[in-house]
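Below is a filled-in request sheet from our internal design queue. Each sheet records the structural input a requester submitted and the sequence that came back. We keep these sheets so that new team members can see what a complete request looks like end to end.

REQUESTER: design group, bay 2
PRIORITY: normal
MODE: inverse folding
CHAIN LENGTH: 144
BACKBONE (tokenized):
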């Protein structure tokens, strides 16, 4: 038997970072994304965000490539959000995303971090937040 642990902290934003994810309907978006992740044989532990971006803590199935999961959940949720009418002005998701692998020992801390997004963004901009995540993961931001 194989044992695989693929935990990811995923971050992605709305197209052109428009603040179209209104808080009163966000829980419906999170539920939809969670069901799409489940369809991909993976598990979302928590989904939360603010008006222009989301964070997801997930366990990726060893049968699914991360890029495939991201393509599917972003495309399906984009169609759903536009058709639902719950997010006026929503034009879809940005093409890019950040995905940061983590060990099981960091899962609870990342969970709490994602849970506190609304208060976190009272003092930290989304650009600063993403730069911190990229730097902490020892990655480089490519500005094409």
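RETURNED SEQUENCE:
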């Amino acid at each position: 038997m194989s044992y695989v642990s693929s935990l990811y902290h995923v971050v992605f934003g709305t197209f052109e970072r428009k603040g179209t994810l209104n808080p009163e309907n966000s829980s419906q978006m999170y539920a939809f994304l969670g069901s799409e992740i489940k369809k991909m044989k993976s598990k979302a532990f928590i989904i939360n965000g603010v008006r222009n971006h989301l964070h997801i803590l997930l366990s990726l199935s060893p049968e699914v490539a991360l890029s495939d999961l991201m393509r599917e959940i972003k495309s399906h949720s984009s169609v759903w959000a536009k058709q639902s009418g719950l997010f006026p002005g929503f034009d879809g998701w940005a093409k890019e995303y950040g995905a940061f692998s983590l060990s099981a020992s960091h899962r609870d801390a990342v969970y709490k971090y994602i849970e506190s997004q609304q208060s976190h963004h009272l003092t930290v901009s989304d650009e600063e937040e993403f730069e911190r995540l990229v730097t902490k993961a020892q990655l480089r931001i490519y500005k094409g």
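SHEET NOTES:
- The helical segments are 26-39, 66-84, 107-115, 117-120, 126-136.
- The beta strands are 7-13, 43-50, 53-59, 98-102.
FILED BY: M.R.
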